[in-house]
């Protein structure tokens, strides 16, 4: 099924491509509810394509343009140099249209008001649960992998040598670089319970800040871990999240303005179905 949108042909190939992009081709027709799921995805694909066409038409009406140079910059950013990829006319046209839509959306929302401090604080209070953090710890570790039973003896020797050097006062990072099999991932960063396997969590979440474990075993091998820092469970302070809240609120306002423009354009558009 194709459409004429204000006299412009929107091919069924374009609509099917969006349907495929949304996962429509992976629907198993033998599964219960497959027809309903496919119908919803087709409707979503049609809505997205028609909205994009209308936005691009609005951009042209507003005098928005995208030069070949701008499109080429976008192409290189997404696809690399000419020697590294092939960019056919269809892809080039899609990039051109997307650039028009982006520029028009930016122009349309150029006067959107940034949220005030009071609005940000009110959002924080009304959505406080979004900013709750589980207990987090910053961890580094040494691992001697045991992929096969015959690796056990070698891993045991290595991890015990590492422990001897740690007990002698050598820095954890230096010892880890010498003995660990983790391919450079000695600092694991901030983790919460469930990030790692249970055997790892049981040991490291029982440690205090700057405390080091003894040798312990997980399904991956033998470890020594140290906790670098701890953040207890609780709410992130407003001071730490106010900038991200302001950005989120501003983006929501911009998206709402664009949606209203699309709704109005849809109401005024002449859209015909071509069987």
Produce the secondary structure layout.
Elements: E1 2-5, E2 8-10, H1 12-21, H2 34-61, H3 68-79, H4 89-108, H5 117-126, E3 132-133, E4 136-145, H6 152-167, H7 172-179, E5 187-191, H8 198-204, E6 216-218, E7 221-231, E8 234-235, H9 238-268, E9 271-274
Antiparallel strand pairs: 1-2, 1-9, 3-8, 4-5, 4-7, 6-7
Report on the structure:
The termini are close together. The protein has 2 domains: 2-112 and 250-274, Porin chaperone SurA, peptide-binding domain (Triger factor/SurA peptide-binding fold, Orthogonal Bundle); 135-232, Chitinase A, domain 3. It is of the alpha+beta class. A hairpin with a 2-residue loop joins strand 6 (216-218) and strand 7 (221-231). Helix 2 (34-61) crosses helix 4 (89-108), helix 2 (34-61) crosses helix 9 and helix 3 (68-79) crosses helix 4. The strands form 3 sheets. The protein has a 4-stranded antiparallel sheet with strand order 5-4-7-6, sandwiched between helices. It has a 3-stranded antiparallel sheet with strand order 2-1-9. Strands 3-8 form a two-stranded antiparallel ribbon. The protein has 9 helices and 9 strands. The protein has helices at 12-21, 34-61, 68-79, 89-108, 117-126, 152-167, 172-179, 198-204, 238-268; strands at residues 2-5, 8-10, 132-133, 136-145, 187-191, 216-218, 221-231, 234-235, 271-274.
